[in-house]
Amino acid sequence: MFWSKQSSFIEKVYFLVLAGFIAFPVVDYILRNKLPIPILSSLWDDLLLAGGLLLVGLRLLFGDPRRRTGLTKPIFVLTLIGVAYLVLDLTSWSENIEGFRAIFQFMFVFFIAFYLNDRPENTKALLSLAVFIGTLLAVHGIYQWVFKVPMPGRWVDSGEAGGTRAFSIIGSPNALGSYLAFLVPISLGLFMQEKPWPKKLLFLGAAVIMAGCLVFTGSRGAWLAFAGAMGIIGVFYDRRILIVGIIAAVLAVAFVPYVNQRVTYLFSPEYMSKSTASGRVSRWFDAYDQMRNNPLFGAGMGHYGGAVAKRNYNVTYTDNYYLKTMAEMGLLGLTMFLWLILKTLKEGYTAMKSLGSSNFKFMATGMLAGLTAIVLHNAVENIFELPFLNTYFWLVAGLLMALPFNAAKAGGGLDA
User: Fold this and answer.
1) DSSP result, 71-122
2) How far is C-alpha 371 from the chain's CA centre?
3) What is the C-alpha separation between 171 and 180, in angstroms, rounded?
4) pTM for this one?
């Protein structure tokens, strides 16, 4: 049973709403590709979000969750800036609305996770479900790599050796890599938290499978984001993590041919030439040039460097969500967005530290490392452009910041 036997009916409803967000990649894939249902296939996540926010509103009005979060102010200030941008530009209303939704909609999942979960055992159950789904997709991705399943797009440069990268049902190796870089630390945190060895081995095995698939995605950005996240956690939590991570990275580059090829090609003259001519580096400079046309407010939401701009204006992806934000919302929007992201990591770190030496701290450390991986990967990819990854980020951020309140309420460690 996922939830506690003591859970009330309404708590079970809360849990099912949160589990719906956890199952996002699978549900979305099925509804859009296998069982397309008119309207529901494209609006199911909007309906789930609306229902979750309705429950949050009812709880704040009639309940007493006894908790506050430091993210309320930056989220609402940034949202108000977005609304102001809409009002200031009425010439392309539909594109602006679409761009606004892509940027702001999933942030509000944070409040659903923060206010609708009171039990740390439910947090553990939700994270376990996420790891289970991630492991299944990782097994699928490994199968694709082993049997050379054709990729849906051109994800390997013509100058590189090899021609296969794992993508699973996600469709993009880079997106799958980010998803796994996010989940591996969470699985390791659950491994450290568990006491019975059979359960510990399950989470450790899941982490190994997902890490293996992460390698086979060939996503250098996800590799670096994962390494950076584990390094940062190692510095602030346990230096042994940092040492083991450095040794593992060196061994992977030295002795795993696929990793060696992908990494060494990154520093080759051919890659640098292509990247500066028409690749990632070139698009970064283009985003900077776009910002210079309107430094304070940018080109407008949905007008540059993302999925909305690609659909409506045939503008290529910036491959850096922060530069995409700068091009679309100017220096003002970028500053406020970075404030929100850094505040999220700071609040997450504070939540982790406040757990002291309790059993919850392992789980919190894994969650914080996963969030950090997404933040870092956004520097070389438009990760927040993907609804399910955007949702996962804010969902886990909410669960993490609610954990100290839930732990205090529980009055002890989790039952294994």
Assistant:
1) THHHHHHHHHHHHHHHHH--TTHHHHHHHHHHHHGGGGHHHHHHHS---HHH
2) 6
3) 14
4) 0.94
Contact at 8 Å (CB) between 217 and 174? yes
- What are the structure tokens assigned to 182, written together? 């996010």
Angle at 198 between CA 194 and CA 201, to 5 degrees: 75
Q: Is 147 exposed, middle or buried (0-12, 13-18, 19+ CB in 10 A)?
A: exposed
Mean pLDDT within 281-291 = 93
What lies within 8 Å, CB to CB, of 106 at 6+ separation is 49, 384, 387, 390, 391, 393, 394
Angle at Cα 31 formed by Cα 25 and Cα 32, nearest 5°? 85
Closest CA to 392 of 185, 234, 121: 185
The per-residue pLDDT of the chain, averaged, comes to 89
Residues 6+ apart with CB under 8 A from 69: 114, 347, 401
Instruction: Kindly tell me the number of DSSP H helices and DSSP E strands found in the chain.
Output: 18, 0
Check residue 32 and report its DSSP letter: I
Q: Whole-angstrom Cα distance, residue 243 to residue 248?
A: 9
Spatial distance between the Cα atoms of 52 and 57, rounded to a whole number of angstroms: 9
In this structure, what are the phi and psi dihedrals at residue 269, rounded to the nearest 5 degrees? -60, -35
Q: Yes or no: say if 186 and 370 are a contact pair by the CB < 8 Å rule.
A: yes
Tens of pLDDT, residue by residue over 185-208, are 999 999 989 989 999 999 999 999
Range with lowest mean pLDDT among 3-7, 54-58, 197-201, 262-266: 3-7
Distances (CA, A) of 168 to 49, 134, 208, 215: 26, 10, 17, 13
Return the higher-pLDDT residue of 280 and 370.
Answer: 370
Map residue 409 onto helix, strand or coil. helix
Interval 144-179: pLDDT, tens: 999 999 888 766 665 555 568 999 999 899 999 999
Tens digits of residue pLDDT in 66-102:
789 999 999 999 999 999 999 888 788 888 999 999 9
Residue that the structure tokens 């293996």 belong to? 212
In 3D space, the residue among 303, 326, 343 whose CA is nearest the CA of residue 379 turns out to be 326
